[in-house]
Design a protein that fits this description.
- This protein has about 290 residues and is α/β, with parallel strands linked by helices.
- The protein has a domain at about 1-165 and about 200-225 and about 260-270: 3-Layer(aba) Sandwich (Rossmann fold).
- Helix content is about 35%, strand content about 20%.
- It is built from 8 helices and 14 strands.
- The protein has helices spanning about 10-20, 80-100, 135-145, 170-180, 200-215, 230-240, 260-265, 275-290; strands at about 1-5, 25-30, 40-45, 65, 105-110, 155-160, 160-165, 185, 195, 200, 220, 230, 245-250, 255.
- It has a 7-stranded parallel sheet, sandwiched between helices. Strands 12-9-14 form a 3-stranded mixed sheet.
- α2 (about 80-100) links the parallel β4 (about 65) and β5.
- The longest helix is centred in the first third of the chain and has 22 residues, at about 80-100.
- The two termini are about 35 Å apart.
Length: about 290
Amino acid sequence: MRVLVTGATGFIGAAVIRALARKGHEVIAVVRRHDAEMRGCETVTWDLVQAKRPRPLPDKVDAIVHAAQSRNYRAVPPDRADMFHVNVAATYTLLDYAVDVGVSRFCLFSTGTVYEPYRGELREDAALAPAGFLGATKLAAEVLARPYAGSFALSVLRLFFPYGPGQKNRLIPDIIERVRTGSPVQLAADGEGLWIAPTYVEDIAEITATAVIDGWTGTINVASPQIISLRELAGSVGRIVGRLPVFEMTDRESVRIVPVLDRLSKHFDLRRFTPIETALPRVIASTAST
């Protein structure tokens, strides 16, 4: 199968390419710069911010994984134009391209932030009205993709707290750095702070490859079934690095960002997820070498 992957040099996109290659599939990696090195696969240069179909996109593709993420989504204030072009406009361009070349599968990456402000059960059929621009643009892309479901097997994967070696500027690398340096980890008034289901990047890649190969359809939450609080996470990091975490209490309410995984469990054995006790030492070792 020939699979086009956007966001190919990104943290998750690169893992998806590795997973597809291990299964013997041919990958076309979409990169932003012509000098980006991608070993073992064909590359196409396309800046998704421009959101117009480039000439180099191949005429023969069997599947597409739209894993690209705006690089400025964490900016304050956010770069709304960049997020719109990558998350919405480029999604439209890829969907139309998919119809033109007759792909049989299209996998769209979305995010758990579509559930903001995280009240009630985080089910795929819940009514959504995300307050943030990231969640809003990802939800817009989901809605935009739905009319194309009659043209190919369309799967929308809502990812929750991806983590793994090499990741930077996200929650788990930040907690690791805080524990290492003795900086305080802020907790909510209940003493826990946040309840999450961190998802190892290689598990996300395996699920994505399976979704493409097997032709999954519909919207599916993707998260580890293992739930952990911010206090527990910092404590686990502390035991590995040999330092007691420093905690700072706040008056904030605790937030539980834990999705319902009923749909995922019908496609993927949840026992296959990597336990955080196994993955966290790998992540910490990778941060020590950077």
